[in-house]
Amino acid sequence: MTAAAERSGAASAHRIRRGTLLRSEQAQGIALISPTFLYALILLVAPVLVVIAHSFWTQDFLTIDRTFTLEQYRIALTEPIYRDLLARSLYISLTVSILTVFLAYPIAYYISFHGGAHKSLWLFVITIPFWTSYLLRVMSWKVILGYNGVLNSGLMGLGIIDEPSTSFLYNTNAVIITLTHAWAAFAVLPIFVSLEKVDRTLLEAAKDLGDGPIRSFLRVTLPLTLPGVISALLIVMIPTVGDYVTPKLVGGKDGVMIATAIETQFKRGANWPLGAALSVITMTVVTVMAASIVFVIRQAGRRVR
Amino acid sequence: MPDRPMIQIAGVSKAYGSFKALDDATLTIREGEFFSLLGPSGCGKTTLLRMIAGFDTPTEGTIAIDGQPMDGIPANRRPTNMVFQSYAIFPHLNVDQNVAYGLKRLKLGAAEERRRVDEALAQVSLSGLGKRGATELSGGQRQRVALARALVMRPKVLLLDEPLSALDKKLREQMQVELRRLQQAVGITFVLVTHDQYEALGMSDRIAVMFGGRIAQVAAPSQIYQRPVNRQVADFLGGMNFIRANVVETNGTAITVETAGFGRVKTEKPSGFNDETRETTLGIRPERLRVLWDDAKAKHEIAGTIVDRHYFGEITHFIVDVPGFEKTLSVSESNNFGADDLPVGAPVRLGYDPDALVALAD
Ligand SMILES: Nc1ncnc2c1ncn2[C@@H]1O[C@H](COP(=O)(O)OP(=O)(O)O)[C@@H](O)[C@H]1O
Ligand SMILES: [Mg+2]
């Protein structure tokens, strides 16, 4: 055996050893994620597939007719009631997510820049409302916004109105207020994390180059925290589109959202395929809206420079 | 004009709680000067530089730039610009946008702004890299961008906080030359913070040596090196032999001391020397002692025995025991003359120039 052959033999042996090592690392990795993966597969992917399948079928009284049809989508997209509900849901979730970010950004900014040694304490304090159930928090808004509620009695006490107003509760705005309050804390965290990552020397550099505090915020801090802002927007927007509890409790007739219509199809309406089509449409629209928000914000960020 | 003061620092202190990071600094930096703040880590150099820039405010004292008192004037309205130790390149901007950052506010118009950015990039040899992203630059290039971004503002004073410390040795030496050349080309007053004595000696017109929040000496590099005011300064700027000496006489600016081997030496009295002191230190740099070969003669010489030697390529370091001295002397001798042949244990005669002996305050 020549020296060269020996060397190549050694090299391939080495390669094989590396190969098994990699394979075992891969195997380890797969083993590690498989419980989560299976869980997600069974509880997330499978139901979604079931829903998508149903959306192409038809309800035939108590049974389901499994011939492929786009009829449900035609109904869902042409019936004005569903279009209105979807539009309102999108409007509410967009408004809520934007309001939430506007509320959360200053809080996150304050904690990150002025929290000093007590940053974790501040974050902890923010989570305190979550110790009570979401239902209780929604109900407490009823107490505030209701006919005999805190807001009405306060305004009457101040003499601003003569009799209780019914315009605070059971409408779109009540849903927006309640959802904004409920989600603000979730938006604080991603924004806080991105603010923490901003190198403070960059802000000194901006100041050194002539920027006052507002300019350096707009030119350095904000562009560098856009990823946090985007995640905050999405974290709030995506789940609120399909929110079901809040409109039920404080939305009244005016505050009905698409989730309620979907629920009706699956329960009282007993039209699963139509409910499924509505669900698929909602998911698609949310995805498209989320993607366009990311795109628009990225573009705007580039423009600021 | 050449000696016009640019930065006047009068009685400036900075305290953090009870700890004084800077203690009563008084210093004048001249227009167009390359000035270095030199000292070990933690001695307060950055603290002083940041107060000149306006990022921190002195607890006591005042700073004036170009005759204008700077009290209450924030960093964004001072005629200074800074090259940060970490460079602080904006990661979301490319090279052009980084350099143009401060110009945007001046509303120069697109063409003039473009011209000044290009000029600044050319000054730091980065022409053609304007479209590079901030994250696609090497350490040396980032350093140049930071420099161009500050220079493009045409400040009265450019502040540099250890700008070369993150670079590797070769690049650092090259940048020292370039920085010096650049400073002379633009004529802006440079204030450089460094803990590297060679960097300070090689680039500066004048140096302030600092220890523990205090300025120990302000002088030109050769003066600092040859006539350090005390042992601490002498030690920080490279090796020096210290010999205990008795004070024979002091008058005015002169001092006469006596030691075993060197005998009586009359030299400059170090500033701040207490005339009551009877004992002091005499210093001489290792390279100011030279080995006398064969029967070579020098006007002044001392004799001793080689007890150790260290070979460094271009020089050899000898440790020489001289009768009457408490400690051995270090002698560095160029290997040009075959110094590497001298063995341990050999007797040597060392020649010196009495001018090379300095009296040091302790
Ligand atoms: N913000 C601060 N709070 C407390 N101590 C500080 C602060 N900044 C600097 N110091 C202390 O002041 C001293 C001088 O620091 P500095 O000026 O950064 O030194 P250097 O000469 O290395 O640049 C150091 O001991 C440092 O720990
Ligand atoms: Mg420093």
Question: Please, could you describe this protein's structure?
Answer:
The complex is a heterodimer of chains A (305) and B (362). With 305 residues, chain A is an all-alpha fold. Chain A has helices at residues 3-55, 71-78, 80-114, 119-127, 134-145, 150-157, 172-196, 200-208, 213-241, 245-251, 258-266, 272-304; strands spanning 58-60, 63-65. A two-stranded antiparallel ribbon of chain A has the order 1-2. Chain B folds into 2 domains: 5-231, Rossmann fold, CATH 3.40.50; 239-360, OB fold (Dihydrolipoamide Acetyltransferase, E2P). Helix content of chain B is 22%, strand content 35%. The two termini of chain B are 37 Å apart. The mean pLDDT of chain B is 91. Classes of the chains: A mainly alpha (305), B alpha+beta (362). Chains A and B meet through α8 and α9 of A and β6 of B. The site of magnesium ion has 4 residues of chain B, from α1.
Write down the CATH topology of the largest domain in chain B.
Rossmann fold
**Assembly status:** heterodimer
Average pLDDT taken over every residue of chain B: 91
Structural class, judged by helices and strands of chain A?
mainly alpha
- Shape label of chain A: globular
Question: Which features characterize this protein?
Answer:
heterodimer, A: 305 residues, mainly alpha, MetI-like fold, 2 domains, two-stranded antiparallel sheet, 78% helix, disordered N terminus, B: 362 residues, alpha+beta, Rossmann fold, OB fold (Dihydrolipoamide Acetyltransferase, E2P), 6-stranded mixed β-sheet, 5-stranded antiparallel β-sheet, 35% strand, binds adenosine-5'-diphosphate, binds magnesium ion
